[in-house]
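Sequence only, no structure available. Ideas?
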Amino acid sequence: MTIISNLEAVADWLREEVCNNLTFKKPNDDNVGPDYNYTLVHPEVHIMYMPTKDIMPGNRHVAPSILVQFDNQKEFLKQSKGLMYFKLGFSVWNPGLHDNGKYERNGEGWKDVWNFVDYTKDAIEKTELIKHIRVKLDDGIETGPVKAQGAIADYYPYWFAYLNFTGEFGRPTVHRKYDHLL
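Reply:
I predicted one. Tokens follow.
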């Protein structure tokens, strides 16, 4: 259960400490006009895999969102601790400037994804613990654009980036000689 509880702890923390403080444009997928209608929403948080539209609950969305994943986990049994290498994937949608009912298409939406990443990075840097997970700031926080075949992915009007960090967690030790007491 450690993997699931760690992923859920980070996802819950992101919902409470990051996503509830931000709003971004959510596309109207039924829009057929040239003006790209939208609504402002708080980003969603998904764990491990992005749900497809056919299984996504109607009140949830793909963009804006953070996808919480992990690269791997390493446990140090004798020290009763473990390390988990978290990967956060960010997605936003922004086709251009919407101002006073007017729409102007531009390529500036990428700034939204980097504001999202920076806000999240700042929140991670300011916290010592994400629930029961200690952020290992000494290991650094890595950010970058999502790439496809070595090049920055260009899926206008969707914008993508990532943030990686290491978390350390305690691991309870259960000795066989105590099993009969549990």
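The chain has one domain: 2-181.
Hope that gets you unstuck.
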